[in-house]
Amino acid sequence: LKAVLPRCSLLASLSSLAPPRQTRAMATSAPDTTAAAASEAAKRKEPEPATDAPQEEKKAADQPPEAKRPKVAAATASPEPAVVKKQVEYYLSDENLRHDRFFSEKIAGDTEGWLDMSLILSCNKMKAMRATKEDVVAALKDSKLELKEDRSAVRRPGNAALPKLEAKPLHQKKNTLHAHDGGAIACFKGIPAEQTWMQVKEKLKAKLPEKVNLWFVSEVNDKAQCFVAAPPFDGDMQFFEACEIELGGAKVKGEICYGELLQQTLKTLPKHVRDKRERESRKRQKERNRPILIGNQKFVNVGALRGKVKEILNSRSDGEQLKPEGTDFKLIMALLEFHPKGSEKIQGTKGIKVAKSLQGDSRCFYMVKEGGTEEDVSVKKCIDVVELNPPYVKVEKKSKDGEEEKPTAENAAAPAAA
Known about the structure:
4-stranded antiparallel β-sheet, 5-stranded antiparallel β-sheet, alpha+beta, 18 helices
């Protein structure tokens, strides 16, 4: 008993000491919890109005520059009447209707020659401008085009006769402009069932220039098509576009391959033919990288000419005219001779100015005519013609007196031919 009692008293004393120790631990942690709660509350606290300025400045700094922000207002604003007028007049012009079968048939189908307003508004360019019927009516107020009494249709002045329909000219995109530098790839469609690739080859051989032999002629496929690959020669593209052969009593026309059709055809060519095309393509590219002459100004290549024209546009303010005695004015005038309608554009021109295009935010050249009228002109069309048939500078030769002759263009007649 004497041995047990001391142990019991020891246990009792230990149990009595435990609660105070726990209480002190809780008391010690209480201030820490309170401090953490206060810190969290401070984090969640809404900022005072006075502290909004720095945040607004930060948001403004994060925004893109004004010039790069989406032009929502511009997209929803009414289109310029002059732009709408020019576009509608183009739709009903001889220039468009001689190639536009759809509009030609719609006008011819109406006894009085009216073209429904809804058809005009359904055109992609009119949709892009967000033009409405009211916009068209307002824009045509001073136009020679006639509006129907109920404003539901438009027609040509005096119900003028429609021009004869013609095939639409082929406008090559820049990435397809030199797709056939290594040799033309053409397709002949609608070949009669009993005819084979051998007949196609024989008929073409009789029409091709001397010493020009076809590289490849494909089998006639289930779509009655036959593809041919030829080495490059002068006028090769024009030859195949105009080529027509007679097979089994039927006339079969050729056409140059572009886009997906060209890519699929290239995959079917034997490797040695593809290698030949690649070598010839590099050769032609090297030949093109030669100086050209526009007017009396020389450029190292067409790319340098394109850069100079861009520089002229960017260095002028809107409405600024080129000085007639300056080299920039003379260059643009010389370049306009290559335009498909060069003589018409140049006639009566007394000045050239730079201004914003009616077709968008880009800038372009305007021909200032003698009567004070202005007409925009596409210099890009001029450069495209130059690139197709560059006026290369002839190799300068020394004359008998030892003086160098003035440089002249190899194909000076190119503008007239264009």
